[in-house]
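Lecture 7 notes: from sequence to structure.
We start with the chain below.
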Amino acid sequence: MKTRRYLLALFFTLVAPLALMQPACAADKSSSAVETRMAMRKLWEEHITYTRNYIISALGGLGDSDAIANRLMANQDDIGNAIKPYYGAAAGDKLTALLREHIAIAAKVVGAAKSGDKKQLADEQAKWSANGKQIAAFLSGANPHWARKDLEAMLQKHLDLTTGEVVGRLNKDWAADIKSYDEGHAHMLMFADVLTDGIAKQFPQKFK
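Predicted structure tokens for the same chain:
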């Protein structure tokens, strides 16, 4: 009887704490991955949301369009800063520069669409697509798990859906406008997850 009590006491003193520690370690690793995914999603969700806010303000001639544009530009800084822990300061700054160009062109696309200048609209959309390809080339060059063609396709779809919002609002086709935003929102979250998955595969040690 004494032996049994001794063994039980030994179990709870030595073995049980170890058993309890294992799930905690797994939870820490899982938590880190989840936190990274959610942080990336938040950044790109802000990208799509403030872009929509700008479209509404610019097309409606509202007084907050400049303030929204500034906030949207700050979001590009945040996205660039988010990759610096993995790819360095220079890479983060390069991504920010490309994304700021992406936003600057977007503002011109909205302006051209509002004015009805079809030539300028076509020119700006061509520049927009070219910028998307530059972003895809930069990202795929940094991470082998981000295929260039896939990124190009995803970024072009982002541009197409954003254009759908602009066209929908100009035509007062609110259903089409909302549909484009909903699809664009879901698409942007998927894009954020692709980036996170690529980082996790390239830097698995950072998630231990």
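Points to note: The two ends are 44 Å apart (CA to CA). Confidence is low (pLDDT under 50) at residues 2-28.
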